[in-house]
Amino acid sequence: MSLLTQLNEDIKTAMKAKDKASLDVLRLLKASVQNEQIAKGEDLNSDEEIAVLAREMKQRRDSLVEFENAGRDDLVETVKAGIVIVEKYLPKQLDETEVRQIVADAIDTTGASSVKEFGKVMGAVMPKVKGKADGNMVNAIVKELLQEK
Prior knowledge:
GO terms for molecular function: carbon-nitrogen ligase activity, with glutamine as amido-N-donor. The protein has helices at 3-16, 20-40, 46-70, 73-87, 96-110, 118-129, 135-148. It has 149 residues and is an all-alpha fold. Helix 2 (20-40) packs across helix 4 (73-87) and helix 3 runs antiparallel to helix 4.
């Protein structure tokens, strides 16, 4: 089942349940996927769908940080609820231990020995974790492990 089909089914369910919060998030996700399809001119493959969802998740996480810093508790709860909904559609997320292992393997494979080779390591890591891990966490782990070298 494609992501759009799943979103349409979940939108119908949310409408019947009169779940306005979920409905709003689902409609935004559907619009993002459709906009990406229009821009591409054809249906998205699963990797492209995951990329759209990952972008939506990143936007929500960034908003969460901003709202927390601004003391907007009313918006924090709304964004947290949206994050939970988006997570349902993303692949299982890697935990920090798994990401550390992938980064360590990439450092060994690329032969990186200093922070100057950050880009080379990130280039090797990101295709393996795309959509499965938060980019900010990956970035921090790569920097940390390279500084230890």
